[in-house]
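One-letter codes give the sequence; the integers encode the fold. A sample entry reads:
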Amino acid sequence: MNLHIITTGGTIDKIYFDAKSDYQVGEPVIGELLESMGVHFPFTVESALRKDSLDMDDADRAKIRDCAQRCSEAHVLITHGTDGMVQTGKALKGIAGKTIVLTGALQPAAMKNSDAIFNIGCAIGALTSAAPGVYIAMNGELFPIDNVRKNLDRNRFESLAG
């Protein structure tokens, strides 16, 4: 598998600044994470945005779509903030010949108990086996983009049927 990774910001890339007492989107971390895990497939990383998904608009989603269409790889992983992930996924529908999986984290990758590495691993596993289309890999599950929502009360992703 040749993998193209598009980073957009979101919690997965957030870093904590003690002096500011807040989180801000930092540099993409996924390339470093994959190298530290010793992956044996070629991958490229492209930073499309460095935004919290709550701040994304239609122009940002069009840019992400353009990046996914333009890359030569058939397997595309997009790291994304969880709040706008479904909306971006729907904006990616219809890109022929590509398997696109969006993933993210509910805690920054830099934190000890982050779900980032688990979600990235699930997303990569899904990319090797899923049919072309758009999916979200979160909470140990793979969801087709037309059958997923973020349940804010439970702070997790689930199928529309719940």
Observations:
- The helical segments are 30-36, 58-70, 85-91, 116-129.
- The mean pLDDT is 88.
- The chain has one domain: 3-158.
- The radius of gyration is 15 Å.
